[in-house]
Amino acid sequence: MKPLKEVLAGLKRGPTDVVGVDVASSGIKVVRMRNHGGVITVVAAGVLPPLSPGNTTDAPPALDLPGRLKARNAALTFTAQGAIVKLLSFPGTFDARAESKVTESMGLDDPDRYRVGYKIISEGHGRAESRILAVAHVEEEAQRIPQLLPTGIPAPRSIEISGLATMAAFLHALPEKDRLGAVGVIDFGDTTTTYALFNRGLLSLVRRFNFGTNSLLEKVQNSLGVDRDTAQGIITDGSFDISQSLTDILEPLIKQLMVSRDFVERRENCRITRLFVSGGLARSRDALEEVRAAMDVELQSWNPFEGLSIAKDALPPDLVGQEWRLAAAAGACLGAFEES
Fold it and tell me: What confidence score (pLDDT) does residue 12 get?
């Protein structure tokens, strides 16, 4: 007879139908996935209008999802500009005593204002340290976002930071050959940029910057006297010389990227051979050239649906070729399946 613990584990089923909802300033990106016997299929996707700006303490209007995007469970992500993300290390095994030190190690000015969560990246034994990814975001924000889905289905199941959800999608899409080496990923969001380095498939460093595609858009708008849509086109097609604007915006960020890379390479005796990029600025050849020239590393785009099955007509025509916009929503779905 099987032990009771094993029987109960077999009865506990995770979600098989999940919709990832990424709440961003440029729109609400939505991806629905199903997991059937370990085969994950993208069944529908779309981008809805962004939330209208207003009092961030007010409850947002209920999200009206089209029928094809309604799953039983929802995995939510949001930018969370005020969030704090740290990769913590603790000696030996990560036990209950170490767990109690996570919040303390975050360096929060007022811990009661934050919701803190963590994930074990690597479990230490003996003299080897445990590596923990810890996140703290403001409690009011964490409570507000699930109110987009106040009743019925989908029911909110989880909430996380968009940049980290994108990292989950990246790891799932990472080619096997790159898992054996050291690689990095930069996600240029609307208002934040997330930078992570991985060595042999394990997270070695993660940083968030309060800088995003909007910073460059505003710079181009002001310097050339154009509207936002025109500025977006200029950044993408390189029809105007915006090198000075790029340098002004990217130089401080690139310096931090290089310092972080050098730190990891020295500490772990590795070399970052490839840097994967996603997000709005990843569409700019000029911006990518600035990063490539400074860091002297190969840059490569990636598709968050790599390795997944995609149902016919799952992607609207305007999203074909722009799958990167759905990376955080896709990562939220994958994270929900993984946790189960």
Answer: 52
